């Protein structure tokens, strides 16, 4: 059978970025050596604050070029107090990178890596148990990219406005991303589209195009529509009702995905993907890699950087998403998720579960990585 060869660019960045990426690299190396049919070529590049220090630019041309030639990018995090007041800031590199790579779909799963983490949720266990959904947020359109204007003179304009605008094509392509993600499980996940169609014209278009696209191109998928205000309530009162794939416009997705991210109990646990296309389901005949940038949802955590105590789970689970969405390696993606679950369920000497500081423990970053890798080897 044919060899699947993929190029992965690592941009660890600043703060805890390099610490958590180092553990994810161990996982990538295990995947690579587990099968002669899978070849992962890794290379590291400067990005963020460290790139400002070394090149005077948070996104040097050489880094951008490497990312454009890669099949996927793994990012740690960027930023920190050292560059906070400068004219050139690390976060500018992040915005430019997303734009240059055409990443129009932001994917954030919210689920419990292990049921043993339910106690960390701010929601009651009976409400939080079994929460398992994927937020698909449109990332380069809508209110954040529509025309912005101020009327009147400085320093205090009399009025200001932002425009929420979507084209049919923009809604079609994000709907296809949501649909393809729904098809990565058996049976497929339900699709919940979220809008404000009772008020906004852009939302009425959104609802119409989502409905048409699913009906025509994905007739077997289950689709429903929720209003965004009601969805915000459901997320904390009965979140299992939204299990499946949530698809929504940029600002609604920004707010709802942050709301959803607190349910599993720590920022350090959650992965994300930003895609430049719709992923192809792994066993499809016409499988082509779908370019994506993968990163944990947290930032560079300067308060704990350099101590070796950051939680690497969000970054390790980002690798699972990379294998699933960019490389079509669903079996390996599942194995990583199972290894994470088993690692979180395993006990240290003394009977304590393996927990980093953000989850109330004192286990080090490296020990979590070690345990995940050891379990993963037995699963592949
Ligand atoms: P943050 O996510 O870095 O940290 C918030 C809190 O959560 C801190 O107390 C931190 O110690 C803790 N935390 C975060 N990740 C953790 C992990 N893996 N393990 C254990 N604890 C963890 O957000 P903050 O403090 O607002 O931002 C710090 C810097 O990161 C800023 O410069 C910000 O601009 C940048 N940032 C970068 C992002 C990115 O690269 N995509 C995203 C968010 C913030
Ligand atoms: Mg946000």
Give short descriptive properties of this protein:
380 residues; alpha/beta; Isopropylmalate Dehydrogenase; 2 domains; 10-stranded mixed beta sheet; 12 strands; 39% helix; globular; binds 1,4-dihydronicotinamide adenine dinucleotide; binds magnesium ion
CATH class of the largest domain: Alpha Beta
What is the correct CATH architecture of the largest domain? 3-Layer(aba) Sandwich
Mean pLDDT over the residues: 95
Helix content: 25-40%
- What is the radius of gyration computed over CA atoms, rounded to a whole number of angstroms? 21 Å
* Largest sheet data: 10 strands, mixed
Shape: globular
Uncertain runs are none
Bound molecules: 1,4-dihydronicotinamide adenine dinucleotide, magnesium ion
Named CATH topology of the largest domain:
Isopropylmalate Dehydrogenase
State the CATH superfamily name of the largest domain: Isopropylmalate Dehydrogenase
The number of helical elements comes to 12
Q: Order of SSEs, N→C?
A: EHEHHEHEHEEEHEHEHEHEEHHH
